[in-house]
Amino acid sequence: MASYDITLEWVGGPTRTVDISERETVLEAARQADAPLPYGCRTGACGTCVGRLLAVDRTASVDVDATEDPIDVADAFAYQREPRALKPRHRDDGYVLLCIATPETARRVAVGSQVQSELVDNPWK
Ligand code: FES
């Protein structure tokens, strides 16, 4: 069974890399590794666990105002069920629901409540 390093980057905070098997959700693995991610429903319905994929070659710290190149979430993660909390444009912008996403490659993901607020605070998203 394959596993991948997923680097979780809290906006304005720490970074943590967790080795996650292809059968495990990012949220499950992060919780087992004592990496506290926000969550609610754990079924893809509420959006509390949302993360944002970061460009693979980006080495600077997370900047909430930074605009990343478009990233295809489908290349990075598989979903265990339909991500109902995300609209198609959210997926196009690299947002991913970590409670139902299993990794398909090593990636960096911006996480934490600020990522969720990006969706909530911007009425155009
Ligand atoms: S915890 Fe609700 S969508 Fe992930």
Q: Strand-residue fraction? A: 25-35%
CATH class: Alpha Beta
Annotation, overall tally of beta strands: 7
Helix and strand element order: EEHEHEHEEEH
Q: Summarize the main sheet.
A: 5 strands, mixed
Quick one: overall form?
globular
User: Overall mean pLDDT score?
Assistant: 88
Oligomer: single chain
The CATH architecture can be named as Roll
Low-confidence stretches: none
- Please identify which CATH superfamily we are dealing with: Beta-grasp domain
Share in helix: 10-25%
What is the CATH topology descriptor? Ubiquitin-like (UB roll)
User: Helix segment count?
Assistant: 4
InterPro entries: 2Fe-2S_ferredoxin-like_sf (IPR036010), 2Fe-2S_ferredoxin-type (IPR001041), 2Fe2S_fd_BS (IPR006058), Beta-grasp_dom_sf (IPR012675)
GO molecular function: 2 iron, 2 sulfur cluster binding; metal ion binding
Protein name: Ferredoxin
Cofactor: [2Fe-2S] cluster
Task: Describe this protein's structure.
The chain is of the alpha+beta class and 125 residues long. It has one domain: Beta-grasp domain (Ubiquitin-like (UB roll)). Helices cover 20% and strands 27% of the residues. The chain has four helices and seven strands; from the N terminus they run ββαβαβαβββα. A five-stranded mixed β-sheet has the order 2-1-7-3-5. It has a two-stranded antiparallel ribbon with strand order 4-6. Strand 1 and strand 2 form a beta hairpin. The chain starts with a strand and ends with a helix. 34% of the residues are buried. Bound molecules: FE2/S2 (inorganic) cluster (FES). One of its GO terms (molecular function) is metal ion binding. Keywords: 2Fe-2S, Electron transport, Iron, Iron-sulfur, Metal-binding, Transport. Pfam families: Fer2 (PF00111).
